[in-house]
Amino acid sequence: MDNRYTLEFERAIYNFRLEGDDASFNPVANAFRMGIENDMEVLVPVHLAPKDIITPGLCLKNGDSPVFANYARFDGADCMVGAYTSEKELAPGDLRDVVCYRMSDLVSKVNEWSGCTGIIINPHTMAFNMHRELLDQMGKRPLSSTFEVVRGSVLNMHVGAIVNAANRTLLGGGGVDGAIHRLAGPGLLEECRGYGGCKTGDAVITGSYNIDHTDAIIHTVGPIYSGRPQDRIDLANCYLNSMQTAFENGIRSIAFPCISTGAYGFPLGEAAKIAVRTLSEWFDRNPDVVMNVYLCCFRDEEYRSYMNILN
Ligand code: AR6
Questions:
Q1: Do 259 and 165 contact (CB within 8 A), yes or no?
Q2: Which of ligand 1's atoms lies nearest the C-alpha of 302?
Q3: Is residue 237 within 8 Å of residue 279, measured between CB atoms?
């Protein structure tokens, strides 16, 4: 199964789990809705035996043959159908018979089957429960880009692209730049060498090399803070050009660090305001694009700055 919408859904659930109690449903709902509208498929474990041997059962179709979905019981009451977003997620369950099924069809089936309370996604790892009410809510929620402020490193996020706060040489350095290069390996440095640098405020996209939970790295160069008005323009351009680069490369989820606020000394409060304003403007200018954006706060004070603004 190779479906980029299923992958985006898997990523959104992973990030939701990672964020813990503060997590917002918005990115998951976006990924789910986008998936439903674009024939997202999931792997459903099935029994190949006749229906009367398995009760209760949810009859799906695999080509012309009927098959019966596996289900799981929770707390003695809930009966949910298991579905997986990838072979990797399926592996720990040691399940042999699966069918690739359209999520929209599975949702319809679940709603028809009185014994079933919903779908459980990746029960062996992330275990994301989608009760009927949640399925209903997510199905109705309007699609729109969202940004989520999260605690932690960009390197923890499962997204289409991770943004690097690089320098003008693009040849690595300290901070998040150093961490990304260390994890990605020498192939990244080699590709970066080929670009001959990047101007302040611009963005360059590369492969992700050994970082397998993202497809790309977008390197942008923030301003070294001097207090001049140009710093604010340059920082806004970092967000704008990174978003545009992501969009033009078909990327629909992206994780930003707090660009320029470490070694480059940009005051946090001001930088957070610029990030929020620039992203909101980009969303307004691109109403037909649905992008899940994560603003990652490696240090607690970064998180506090965003919260001050958003509250
Ligand atoms: N992992 C994840 N995020 C980090 C890490 C890390 N190890 N270290 C810092 N951050 P900075 P800048 C976060 O200093 O201010 C480099 O040497 C940090 O909390 O990495 O744009 C480059 O090569 C903050 O949210 O970048 C440049 O020369 C964000 O990363 C220069 O620093 C940016 O902090 C760029 O300075």
A1: yes
A2: 25
A3: no
Same domain, 128 and 199: no
Distance CA 94, CA 78 (A): 23
Structural contact between residues 258 and 163, judged by C-beta atoms closer than 8 angstroms: no
Cα distance between residue 17 and residue 10, in whole Å: 11
Q: Are 306 and 183 in the same domain?
A: yes
CA 73, 2, 33 angle in degrees (round to 5)?
A: 60
pLDDT tens for residues 49-89? 554 444 455 777 766 677 777 776 655 567 888 899 999 99
- Residues lining ligand 1, CB < 6 A? 153-155, 165-167, 173-177, 179, 222, 257-264, 298-299, 302
Please indicate, yes or no, whether the overall pTM of this predicted structure exceeds 0.70: yes
DSSP assigned state of 113 = -
| Residue 113 and residue 13 share a domain | yes
Number of independent structural domains in the chain = 2
Atom 10 of ligand 1, nearest CA residue = 176
